[in-house]
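question for whoever is on the cluster today: can someone run the full assembly for these? three chains, 581 residues total. i dont have access anymore since they changed the login thing
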Amino acid sequence: MGPLFPNGLISGDWNLVIAVFIGIAFGFLLEASGFSSSRNLAGVFYGYNFVVLRVFFTAVIVAMVGLLYFNYFGWLDLSKIFILPTFLPSMIVGGVVMGLGFIIGGFCPGTSFTAIVIGKLDALVFAVGLFIGIFLFAEVFPFIEHFYYSGNLGNVTLTDVTGISASWWAFGFTVIALAAFWASWLIEKKVRKRIKEYKF
Amino acid sequence: MNKVNSNREGTHYLNPYLGGVLMGLLMIATVFISGRELGISGAVKDTVVEAAHVISPAAAKAHPYYGQYIKEGKSPMDTWLVFEVLGVFIGALLSGIIYKRVRKPFVEHGPSISSKKRLVVALIGGILWGFGTRLGRGCTSGAALSGSSTFSFGGVMVMLLIFASAYLFAWLFRKLWT
Amino acid sequence: MNRNYFILTLIMLVLAAGTFFIPKKSMQQQVKPSKLLWEIIQPTRYVSTDQVAKMIIQKDPSLELIDVRSADEYARFSLPNTINIPLDSIVNENSMDYFGIPGTNVVFFSNDAIKADEAWVLTRRLGFNATYVMKGGLNRWIETIIQPKEPAEESPRTAFETYEFRKGAQLYFTGAKVETTTAKKAKVVIRRKKKKVVASGGC
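^ ran it for u. tokens below:
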């Protein structure tokens, strides 16, 4: 049955209308979970607020396990969904640069947008930075084009690369995430005693 | 739960696990309906491409990076992600209103830095993110969150790298946040 | 509070562990040999030349004829509205687009039924449904549709009805030959599946 759009069960126009509603739900959940505060976000790296870790990994494991069940029940053809392609060197550098941006800027793109609408100027400046960053990237693109496209593995999944089945990955991530949730709870309790001027 | 932040009144958040489960279900729904996943930075890229296209159509079309996103008779912003990001703004506003978090513009910053410094580092962070998302083929939502949940090798790699690198540099920038 | 989280943790673990017990579905789903064997011995995968002729005459939109002979043979003679996919290229990426289109029945044929049978097994193995083989192939087609034999007098009535139909079909396929072949060339509607993956994405 699914995915509906690639299977031609809904038209392209409806797909865009649905995109807006999916965005609304996404934006709502990000904001409601507290992702609109850079201090909440940065907290995960200093041990005083693990909201990012909790929401993020809960979402990942629910989606991973859920997709496997959807595939099993025949509701979703996992071979028809978009798999993010892998370009090894450029994605490794990209990941490191983004991590650095995270600790300096305190936002990631999606969370900065949710913070803008509730009136945070630092998020607005961050978003301006995003545009500048992409513009700069396009400017230097001719010089790094080779690097950008190198190491292309295609749209590969974890199973394609490692040969370990998706169930094992889902289970592994679930165990690690659940362990991290309990650990984070203990860490948070300890660190919060030392932190000043912050409301949880 | 003891010391109070000066610039925020008591504010209520969704239980993180409830938020996470709902977000996971939302991702499944997105895959089920559209066969793709959530994302943010792609829409920003589309906007930049559109801007370049408006300012100088010929140069943008000839440009090795912008050029690949410009197609005849279709605006570069006529994409799924742009519509989704529009929704993100609306959704965040809804949540902000419901939880009474919408306020007059202000700068949120750590206790040890000034507003001005916060704005400067936010700009630097934004630029790094903008650059990084293009290299990484997506941001936390598109590459890390959605990529890993669809078992993409690259997605999981980017997710681990973002967190690892942030933890690695955390000590250097601790003044900004604590 | 802690107890609730403990229960949630357990539920999530059980759900994740549950994925081990669901059968694996690989990207290209293949049919199990035992199931395939069972299907091979079923006569339902054959359609007779009469049925095919009837569908062609009625311009049945669900019919998708695929000629699995070589391109040369195809150029010399084939049935109207036919797509030529030689057997050796049947599992190509390109050929895949012709199979498994919702609402169509693929009918393979060759000179006899052997090549068509092979094509059927290959596509069935790759998990495509609604594929059939024209029984007896083009040889049977000639025997029955193009040069039908009058049944013996003591034959049952149905044999005569079939003969009547074949005579009509013969006229259809041979009588207005010039006209139909030219019309056919213009009319070949080739249906293809839409490309599989929406290749846009990323953040």
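summary bc i know u wont read the tokens: Chain C touches chain B at residues 5, 8, 197-198, 200-203 (CB under 8 Å). The radius of gyration of chain C is 24 Å.
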